Amino acid sequence: MAKIEIYTSPSCGYCHAAKRLLAQKGVSYTEVNVVAEPQRRAEMTQRSNGGRTVPQIFIDGRHVGGCDDLYALDSAGRLDPLLTA
Hints:
It is a single chain. 41% of the residues lie in helices and 20% in strands. The chain has 85 residues and is an alpha+beta fold. The protein has one domain (4-84): Glutaredoxin. Helix 1 (13-24) packs parallel to helix 3.
């Protein structure tokens, strides 16, 4: 099973949508709340090559983008192979 990390904030609708898709896929993930842990925002920005908005999603250390990117991967049939790698 892939290691999934998602940087979020509690009031972000896109974060909730991304987590909902991952839950539908039956995968677990590590969530980093950048509001509760503001020092982690700089880490998120660095890891995502400048991404400042949430969510920022990583699968096995690879940055896949945000919520729209996650859904696009799923629509293209490319998300499931990443999740089971």
